[in-house]
Amino acid sequence: MSDNYRVAIIGSGPAGMSAAGRAAQLKLKHILLEKTDHLCDTIYKYQKGKHVMATPSQLVLRSDLEFDAGKREAILGTWDEQVAGHGVNVKYNAEVKAIKGTGEAIPGSVQIIENRARDGTVTKTEVQRHAPPYELELTNGEKIIADTVVFAIGTQGNPNLMRCPGGDLPHVQYQLDDPTEYVDEHIVIIGAGDAGIENARGLAEDAAQGNVVTIVNRSTDFATAKDANVKALLADRDAGKLIVRLETETASIEPGWITFNTRDGEEKAQCDRIIARIGSAPPRAFVEKCGIEFSSNERLAFPKLSPVFETTAPGIYVIGALAGYPLIKHCMNQGYDVIEFINGNEDLKPADEPILEKKFADLPKGKSVDEWLEFFRERVTILNELSPLQMREFMLDSDPMPFRRGEVIFERNDPGSSLFAIAQGSVEVEIDPKDSSKVVGIEEGSIFGEVGLISGRRRGATIKAAEDMIAIEISRTAALKLQASVPAAKRAITRISTERQLLQMFGSGLTKQDIAEVVESSEIVNVRAGEAIIEEGSEGNDIFVIRVGSMVVEKMIGGKPVFLSYLPAGSYVGEMTLIAGGMRTATVKAAIKSEVIKINGDAFKKVLDANPALMKKAKQEMASRQDVNAFVEAKKDSFSGVVDMYSGIANFLVDNGIGEATDVLLIDENLCVGCDNCEKACADSHEGLSRLDREAGRTYAHLHVPTSCRHCEHPHCMSDCPPDAIHRGQDGEVFIDDTCIGCGNCQRYCPYGVIRMDKVPPKKPGLLNWLLFGFGPGPGEPDKKWSYANSDPTVEKPKKAIKCDMCSGIKGGPACVRACPTGAAIRVAPEEFLTVSKLEGEDV
Q1: Which of 14, 89, 678, 785 is the most exposed place for a label (fewest CB within 10 A)?
Q2: What percent of the chain has pLDDT over 70?
């Protein structure tokens, strides 16, 4: 015989427990169904001794159960006691098999549910929704009747799986229960979210266990992890407890080994065990069979919910991780709230209401928090698919703000990596820094600032409000999290950034409508270092735009690959075959790990044919490349040795990091007399601390690359600077400001050894003081005895990161080049130096 309840709660995690605790306090007849023999299975499966955080800190806890940051065991113990003390009706070993309404059929509610298996086969199920009460059938055959149902089941039971070759091998696992079980193993953690970081730290905590622990993150950002976890991870890395691999993905797995794709190519490492913590997806098939609709067909989409957590099935509610809110404090608040709503409390406001009210205080009056959230969701394209709950969490990390007509939102060359979304009004982009009247508009619903988000570079243009407007400034962390959790938002940001890059690159009066088909058919392709996007002699007419990274162009001459040119981000290749026909005339491959926009050749040919100015521009580009090819072919016999020499030099430079440089110091050994004027001039321009080491570095033939900053397109040193002290200046220089705390992270991240930590001397006396009174060292002669003569030798002196800043702000440019008496030292951008046409000036 079935039992009848006012509310049945499925899942005893933080959300479910809190809901059941509130139901018990309100004396509602309820039942809490848990499929295991213990409460809160997700946290129960946390590794032993794990510290559980209580974030966000500014959010108050609204629950009848207590929760504060602490050890896993203590938190579970408190909850066990309080659930029993509150009289919560828990039924253990109660797994729900099916839910169906027992009331009347809801008109027009027949759904076709598609379930796609891993082998690709699709089964379809027709579902007719019925009104409550609901019958819950358990796997043991028992049936429970409830007026309302609360889903609090989370997503951890449906983890994302490794898809690479070898991903199904037995030493790949998706859970870590007790880190102390593993001894003397090489363990790789895939995924650097909170779970991955905590697993890695747990395995590396006790050095006596002898584990070699590596955690792999596909980018330089930890988009989905809490800030405290990231800082703790990096502290462990700095202490030598574990290895952190950034910009790394898994290529393949085999017994005892793992192969990584890194920015520098493939790398193989010893590996006894892999723990994949790469997220999870909602158990969609089961939820949909209950008559609940999802917000989209995306695998990671969440159920459609009302502001009171009700789904499209009347009387069925969803809270917690399944609703898109994974944080414990959020989940517990939702558990409390949903029972209040079910009990008829229509006036209850969410716990984050005061925080959001404060955020919206400067906006025009007349809208409630819910109205503003819906206003932003409807108006901003990248937010369209967020649920009301996701919108609340998103806005906690973002800042809405009004702007008056003509007000500057940011200036060209301002630092900043946040993204802006236009909720109302429009903006004007000044495309010519010399003429502020030349502007293009960005309309309501779109975004701007995506260049800073993608590249981390300074703002590329001045943007002003074209009219009174409202924008949302989205922090880099919130933008990355949005892209990671909402595929539609990521696609929208990628589309907009692609469209703008193509318009900026090809110009010639093109509009968004002109390139709509090109953008629609394009795709973003990640390319490993050394991987070719075009092979000489192959067929194909696609065009490739370099979005991130750089490429090198090679041609086979006399059976050997000859380096033709270097292509930085913002370049494109492939137009020669599209315009002239025939086979590919050269090989184009990635100098470093790169990202390209692959443009369908047929779609782009239509744009060329319809725009004579663009066709003319493309033919000019093609002609210059044909000239290089013809030059090499014509000279290959008369001075093949020079061609070989140049090709060897170019490959040497690319192998030594010039492929990601924007400005590099080179020294011609044939001209250098070893006077060290370059180092002395550098020291004299920088408080007595030279930024370069002339003798250090590598040499090929007569060309020497000293130890000096390359000012990389995507600086490694910027990837983890706690005070955000590293910036890129208006001339492209990467510099470190006075907020440097001397942590040394940049030095560790730089692969070229061009950053050092040095004691900061007092301000150096001027030239006249040195000449007339002998105070301090002479030009280019730092004297540490003078610098610290009056200081206590037992006190550790403060240090800061020292690196080349291209003599930013110093008239005449880099001092090292100006001080060279023979012209041996030059500073160049790779694209200006690495071209075979330079051979024309060779004396052969």
Answers
A1: 785
A2: 83
pLDDT given at position 553: 84
Residues in the chain: 844
- For residue 66, count other CB atoms closer than 10 A to its CB: 12
Give the HSE-up count for residue 369: Cα atoms under 13 Å, Cβ half-sphere: 19
The proportion of the chain whose per-residue pLDDT surpasses 90, expressed as a percent, equals 28
CB-based contact 534:615 (threshold 8 Å)? no
DSSP for 639-653 reads THHHHHHHHHHHHHH
Q: Where are the domains of the chain?
A: 3-157+282-348, 172-276, 356-506, 516-634, 662-828
Same fold, 3-157+282-348 and 172-276: yes
Q: What is the pTM of this model?
A: 0.63
Which is nearest to 486 in space by CA: 357, 393, 619? 393
> What pLDDT digit, counting tens, does each position of 812-832 carry?
788 888 888 888 888 877 666
CATH number at 516-634: 2.60.120.10
> 549 near 713, Cβ under 8 Å?
yes
When the candidates are 2.60.120.10, 3.30.43.10, 1.20.1250.20, 3.50.50.60, the CATH number that belongs to 356-506 is: 2.60.120.10
Say yes or no: domain 172-276 is CATH 3.40.50.1780: no
Measured in whole angstroms, the distance separating CA 98 from the mean position of its chain's CA atoms is 39
Q: What is the pLDDT of residues 637-670, one digit of tens each?
A: 554 555 565 566 666 766 666 667 778 888 888 8
Contacts of 112 by beta carbon, 8 Å cutoff, 6+ apart:
124, 125, 126, 127
Q: What angle do CA 214, 217, 218 make, to 5 degrees?
A: 135
- pLDDT bin (cut points 50, 70, 90) of residue 844 is very low
